[in-house]
UniProtKB/TrEMBL annotation:
InterPro entries: P_Ac_Bu_trans, Phos_Acetyltrans/Butyryltrans, PTA_PTB. It comes from marine sediment metagenome. This is Phosphate acetyl/butaryl transferase domain-containing protein. GO terms for molecular function: acyltransferase activity. Belongs to the phosphate acetyltransferase and butyryltransferase family. Residues 81-297 form the Phosphate acetyl/butaryl transferase domain.
Amino acid sequence: MIAHVEEILTLAQQRQPKPRLAVAGAGSQAVLEVIRASYERGLADSILFGDTQAIAASAEQLAVDLSPFEQVHCADPSQSVHAALEAIQSGRADILCKGVATTRTILKGVLDKRLGFRTDRFLSHVGVFNVPAEDRVLIITDAGVNIHPDLTRKRDIVLNAVDVAHAIGFERPRVAILSFVEDVTDPSIRSQSDAQQLRKMYQSGSITGCVVEGPYSLDVALSPEAAAIKGIRGEVAGRADIIVMHDIGMGNVLYKALMLWCKPVIASVIMGARVPIVGPSRADSVITKLNSIALAIVVKPHEQAI
C-alpha cells in the first residue's frame, strides 16, 4: 500500500511494456510539456491527435522534439477524440488522455456505444491526495463527472474508487459515505438515505472488496478524535481511505479547497470505461498531470472488461 502519491510514479515507471497514450487534442504548449515530461521520465509513449500545424508550432515554441511521437492530423477536437479512441480500439494505444479537447467532448466519445468503450458501470472521477501532515493517501470521489448521482450511480462511484484503491495497494479500503450528520433523521434528505442504502448494499454483498459505513460527516470520517467525541464506532470512523461525496457540488468544493489551501500532491483518473481516462484540469500543474498519467497506468490492469 502506498503512503504518498509520489510513489505512483515509481510504480508506473516499472510497468512493462511501456504503455502508449492516445492524446486527444495535442496542439498546445501545456499538453506537449506534459507529454515530453512523460516520455523523458519513462512513463509512456504517446500518439498525438490534433491539428498538426498547431502541434508543430507549439513544439517549436517549447523546443520539443516531436520525432518520438506519432502524429495524426484531426480537423477538430471531436475528430481527435474519435481517432484517439479508434487507436485504442485497434491496440495502437492503451490509455485515453485529454489534451485541449474538453471533458464533455471526451466523455461523449467514450459513451458512444458504437465505439465500444462503455461498460456496465457509470463513469466517475477519482482523486488521490496526500493527506497533509500524515503518511497516507486519501481518495475523494466524485468531484468531476456526476452532478446529482442517484443510488445506482453512487454504487458505481464506490466500486470505481475501490478499483483505484486496490490498484495502489489497499486490500480492503475503508469507505465513508458523506453527509452532514451521522444520524438518519429524515429519509427525505438524500445524502442520509443514500448512505444508509449503500451501507446495506455492502452488508448484503452487493458492494465487495471494501468496508462501507455512513452517513458520516467529514470530521467523523477522517478524525479519530471527532469520532470518539461523537461516540461513533466502526471500522471506517476516523480512518476512511475513500470518502464519497453526495454530489459534484460537495466534491468539487472540497477538492478545490484542498488544492488552494493545503496544496497537496494529487493524482486523478476517470474510471468506469474500458480504459482509464486521464482528464486533468487546465489549472493543474505539470506534476499533477504526470501523477494522473501514472495513476492511469497503474490502474489499467484493474480496468473493467466490456
